[in-house]
Amino acid sequence: MRLLHTSDWHLGRALHRANLLVAQAEFIGHLVTTVREHAVDAVVVSGDVYDRAVPPLAAVELFDTALHRLADLGVPTVMISGNHDSARRLGVGAGLIGRAGIHLRTEPAAAGTPVVLHDTHGDVAFYGLPYLEPALVKDEFAVDKAGHEAVLGAAMDRVRADLATRSPGTRSVVLAHAFVTGGQASDSERDITVGGVAAVPAGVFDGVDYVALGHLHGCQTITERVRYSGSPLAYSFSEAGHRKSMWLVDLDADGSLTADRVDCPVPRPLARIRGTLDALLADPELTRHEEAWIEATLTDPARPADPMARLTARFPHTLSLVFDPERAPDDPHVSYARRLAGRSDHQIAQDFVAHVRGTGPDEHETAVLRDAFDAVRADDAVREVAR
User: Fold this and answer.
1) What helix, strand, coil percent values describe the chain, rounded to 5?
2) Per-residue pLDDT, 309
3) 51 lies in which domain range?
4) Does residue 282 share a domain with residue 255?
5) Which of 161, 164, 136 shows the shortest CA–CA distance to 151?
6) Residue 369 lies in a domain
7) Which processes are annotated in GO (biological process) (predicted)?
């Protein structure tokens, strides 16, 4: 069976002030063409179909178009909700849509109930694990502690239990939306840290033939059988070096597989440039970036006059302007943002405690801080579900 694995469409998202809807529509067209030209047997979409719980109307219309075009191909599609989606909204009409071959899996309780497709070698069971917010699903999966590894492990126990009841030789595919250990993050993924731990080990998914992951926006291989497709478009300048693609996976009769990348259309390249304003305007090496979307970091010791206007005269698609004067690390004028770069909310809170009283939090206080951040995250998740 030949699978096309994609994820993280984020329909409705922009790149700074650049509207990406046309580029997203171009990707949908490319997806349909790929399915047709490569004789794909099934499409899997591993979450974050939309960029937010209540997407703009134009994004909903594009999704509707995508569903119709996929259904017209007669090729089954299995799709899960991600942490950006409203699972309830995405799952509306799932029963009816399923009759057209588009199988939406948004209910955690159905993790062990697969979509079963067939080829000349027998059955392939597709298990959809939507994004599992630990605080919201811990009771469903009867876990003592709300954590990503615990709830995903319990969901996979259901998958393996169901798979054990199926005929010998049944192959298996799991769709999941999670941060798996070894994956490389970018700036455009929403933080899903719970209890100080966001990542789960790849071993959680042992026992199935292929795991089609979503959440991280870079295409990457965790193990031969566990892969991220990444997002089809770049949604932050941290993705400037990404090669955006989908996985074309051939699942053989014995469960062995081969996987190849299919490149996605690039609406406009991204580039990060850094230096003084005068240097950026004069450097001949930067000519190749003049038509790219630009993030410019200015290192002038003082802010120059009209920097954006002067930059866009040479780089008309400049979207982001960052000021980062080159100073010694111990310079009192080093920006607050630079001092916080790379630190989590929990680490920042610990630093604040240490700054205020001269000593950092002890083990008990660290746990209190972590629980407080987890409670806020859980409250946000409940509000997202209720919207």
Assistant:
1) 35, 25, 40
2) 97
3) 2-263
4) no
5) 136
6) no
7) DNA recombination; DNA replication
CA atoms of 207 and 217, how far apart (whole Å):
25
For position 146, what pLDDT does the model report?
Answer: 82
Q: How many CB atoms lie within 10 A of CB 281?
A: 14
Instruction: Give the Cα separation of 377 and 206 in Å (integer).
Output: 29
Do the beta carbons of residue 293 and residue 52 sit within 8 Å?
no
Give the strand pairing for 293-298 and 270-275: parallel
Residues 6+ apart with CB under 8 A from 124: 1, 42, 116, 117, 118, 170, 171, 172, 173, 251
Report which of 67, 38, 45 is spatially closest to residue 115, judged by C-alpha positions.
Answer: 45
**Residue pair 177/211 in contact by the 8 Å Cβ criterion:** no
**Are 35 and 43 in contact, with CB atoms under 8 Å apart?**
yes
Q: Report pTM.
A: 0.85
Q: Is the domain of 53 the same as that of 72?
A: yes
Look at residues 263, 284, 305 and tell me which one is the last residue of a structural domain: 263
For residue 284, CA distances in Å to 19, 95, 297, 306 come to 29, 58, 17, 22
Low-confidence stretches of the chain (pLDDT beneath 50):
none
Reference 179, options 201, 161, 196; nearest CA is: 201
Tally the domains of the chain.
2
Q: Which residues contact 224 (CB under 8 A, 6 or more apart)?
A: 257
What confidence score (pLDDT) does residue 362 get?
Answer: 84
Distance of CA 154 to the CA centre of its chain: 22
Residue reference for tokens 């250990």: 181
CATH code of 231's domain: 3.60.21.10
Q: What is the pLDDT of residue 378?
A: 57
Q: To which residue do tokens 């053989």 refer? A: 252
Alpha carbon distance 315, 323 (integer Å):
17
Euclidean distance between CA atoms 319 and 237, whole angstroms: 10
Place of tokens 């699972």: 87
Q: Is 70 helix (H, G, I), strand (E, B) or coil?
A: helix
Q: Which of 326, 347, 364 is the last residue of a domain?
A: 326
pLDDT at 161: 98
C-alpha to C-alpha distance for 141 and 134, rounded to whole angstroms: 10
Tens digit of pLDDT for each residue in 207-241?
A: 999 999 999 999 999 999 999 999 999 999 999 99
CA–CA dist 214, 217 (Å, integer): 8
Q: Would 22 be classed as within a structural domain?
A: yes
